[in-house]
Amino acid sequence: MCALYPDLMNIYADRGNLIVLQRRCAWRGIGFELTSSGLGEPLDPNASDLFYLGGGQDRDQRLCAKDLIENKREALHAAADRGAVVLGVCGGYQLLGDSYALGSEEIAGVGLLDVRTVREEGPRLIGNVAIEVSLGDEDLALSGERMLAGFENHGGRTHLGTDARPLGRVLKGHGNDGRSGFEGAKRGNTIGTYLHGPLLPKNVWFADWLIARALHIDPSELTPLDDTLEREAHLSARRAAGV
Ligand code: GLN
Q: Is 62 in the pocket of ligand 1 (CB under 6 A)?
């Protein structure tokens, strides 16, 4: 897998997400190699099955947005088109969309998701959050285990376009904009979400779903692991969110 800008887009324990993917693959004997692509570096669309873009502050997002457009946009689209998983968390989610408007300034995103983010007046949307995920009919094997719990902290409000599907429905917390009741966005294997804190250690079923998607297999084909501690982490995140 390839982490994009791991030195700049890594607030809120994004490294934990990478470690979860690495360990869960290693425990199952699935080959896993972590590469990275930073500012000014090229991106090979065929070299990875999963691309990760984490959270960042507005200042760092500006730098990355410019570089994404100039150096990585086409490669990311090519990767998504061939079914690679592209996961953007918080600031990374915003940059996978069409644009991020801060006052009179508009930062262009890579346009993999039909969403627009606006930094409106008003407080940051902060707190524990839980959402009910609808991954689609192809993932019925996951029924009963479809809740994601985490933490959100964003000033931007994200609005879904007509082509966008939300990742889930807000059970507790703010979600995309604090009003719509939607959280995140999904198109094919491209996923954006505001949940971090971090996302995957608290929701390992979702890590497995991503691994399965990246390998083009059904999640039920993955060797089961002893998830006693991971389930505790999930339940504790749910308790924090009050669900
Ligand atoms: N800078 C963005 C915002 O405040 C994203 C923040 C983040 O990644 N936590 O909306």
A: no
Pocket lining: 61 vs ligand 1, CB cutoff 6 Å: yes
Determine the pLDDT at residue 70. 96
Beta carbons within 8 Å of 115's beta carbon, 6+ residues apart: 93, 96, 97, 98, 158, 159, 160, 161, 164, 176, 185, 192
Classify strands 190-193 and 85-89 as parallel, antiparallel or unpaired: parallel
Whole-structure pTM value: 0.95
Collapse the DSSP code of 91 into the 3-class scheme (helix H, G, I; strand E, B; otherwise coil) and give the result: helix
Q: pLDDT (tens digit, 9 = 90+) per residue, 58-110? A: 889 999 999 999 999 999 999 999 999 999 999 999 999 999 999 899 999 99
C-alpha span between 209 and 133 (Å, rounded)? 12
Helices (H), the chain: 14-27, 58-67, 73-81, 91-96, 199-202, 204-215, 228-241
Residue 118 token pair: 């606006």
**Res 121: pLDDT:** 86
Mutate to test the pocket of ligand 1, among 90, 115, 152 (most ligand atoms within 8 A of CB): 90
Whether the bond between 198 and the residue before it is cis, its omega within 30 degrees of 0, is yes
pLDDT above 70 as % of the chain: 96
Share of the chain above pLDDT 90, in %: 85
Closest CA to 91 of 210, 202, 192: 192
Q: Which of 120, 136, 128 is nearest to 179 (CA)?
A: 120
